Amino acid sequence: MEMGMKEEGKETIESQEFIKVMDVSKDYITGEVTVHALRNVSFEIQKQEMIVILGPSGSGKSTMLNILGGIETASAGEICFLGQSLDWTDKKALTMYRRKHVGFVFQFYNLLPGLTALENVELAAELGEHPLDPMELIRQVGLHDRADHFPSRLSGGEQQRVAIARALCKNPDILLCDEPTGALDSKTSVQVLNLLSEFHTKYQKAVVIITHNQNIAQIADRVFYFRDGCLERIEKNPNPRKPTEVEWK
Ligand code: ADP
Fold first, then answer.
1. What is the full DSSP assignment across 14-49?
2. pLDDT digits (tens, 9 = 90+) for 74-127
3. Which ligand 1 atom is at minimum distance from the Cα of 56?
4. Among 28, 167, 169, 220, who pairs with 35 as Cys (CB 3.0-4.6 Å)?
């Protein structure tokens, strides 16, 4: 029933127009050398979709994620968010887009070392228009007894859980995760993916995960394969699995 409703929801015009990426290219010019990091990439993301991006190193995955999140600008093409085109020339508007709508999770957590776990989350909550309760999120990621610990006293997996709470407390519409388990062992990776998957279901947010790990593709609704700056193909996953159900080959 729930799945049926979700599928039905995906067919509405509103969800189809959540994010639309049209012919996006990105060139990095360093002296005489031009790197074509992205070449005419087009796709759509629907509300509540779980997308996994796979591809070799240097294929343009992070560049795509950063442009989607308004951290970087494209050299050509267009991105529409809820029917509105992102204006690459308007830095203020891009900052507002990032603050209001986008949550980021990075491979190396990027927590502020001088703030406790809870304070890291609270700081991000202040930026959101409709933030979630920071302590409640700390509880949900299983760190209620470590809320007053500084990052240096937390393990990698715990720091990533704080980073996820921080990304979510802004109550963003889309969560962009760049190799979120890249620095973690497989057991901790499953815990972190579980959290992302639970939040995806509970708050019904779009989640995009970049990874090198083919196994993680099993949790996606759709898998985007990047190669040489191109979106080579998209595969739809008829039966996305929970991270705990994934066969970790
Ligand atoms: P991936 O995430 O798939 O490893 P990236 O998006 O990081 O790939 O990089 C795509 C290409 O763009 C690579 O050739 C990389 O060296 C180049 N690149 C990325 N960022 C920059 C930058 N700031 N300046 C110059 N080249 C860059």
1. HHHTSEEEEEEEEEEEETTEEEEEEEEEEEEE-TT-
2. 999 999 999 999 998 999 999 999 999 999 999 889 999 999 999 999 999 998
3. 3
4. 28
